[in-house]
Write a structure and sequence with these properties.
Helices cover 30% and strands 34% of the residues. By secondary structure, it is α+β, with helices and mostly antiparallel strands. Strands 3-4-2-5 form a 4-stranded antiparallel sheet. A 3-stranded antiparallel sheet has the order 6-1-7. The longest helix has 11 residues.
């Protein structure tokens, strides 16, 4: 279990980066043969990314909701994310093809993602009495002092 860091902390990232949120929704719990392979497909992708940080992956956090899993991923750039997604030698493209062949548009399983490109000074984060999480875990976890003390300062609005 991650160690709780008492106090106020923030994330420090002085370069552009991308945030990629991806998840799946089980629409038919009885269609185990369709949603279970979809759930299992993410493990090999994450293992590959953590093993090869040169692909541009910074880190991720996993969340579970009633109907399925969700990941928030951090990348050096959208281009790195896209290159991984389209590379037939990486695990994403074959898994995506299997999903489309096995599930397609039958409605049993839903998948979704959102991608955001972020410039320095256009994001802010605060973590109070938390272990490193999210962007701070993927980049640099720093005390929220000085120019990092308030949301307005973290967004470079002062």
């Amino acid at each position: 279990m991650a160690k709780v860091m008492n106090g106020r902390f923030t994330a420090n990232m002085d370069e552009p980066f991308a945030v990629f949120m991806i998840g799946m929704r089980i629409n038919n719990f009885l269609a185990v043969g369709k949603w279970l392979p979809t759930v299992r497909a993410m493990g090999p992708m994450l293992r590959e990314l953590y093993k090869h940080p040169e692909k541009g992956f910074l880190g991720a956090d996993f969340f579970l909701h009633l109907r399925g899993p969700m990941l928030v991923q951090y990348w050096h750039s959208f281009e790195d994310l896209e290159r991984f997604a389209k590379n037939p030698d990486d695990p994403h493209l074959p898994a995506w093809r299997r999903f489309n062949q096995k599930v397609g548009s039958d409605g049993s399983v839903g998948v979704w993602h959102e991608t955001y490109t972020i410039k320095p000074g256009t994001f802010e984060a605060i973590y109070v009495n938390m272990p490193p999480l999210g962007l701070a875990k993927a980049t640099e976890h720093v005390p929220a002092v000085g120019r990092q003390k308030t949301a307005r300062k973290r967004l470079m609005r002062e």
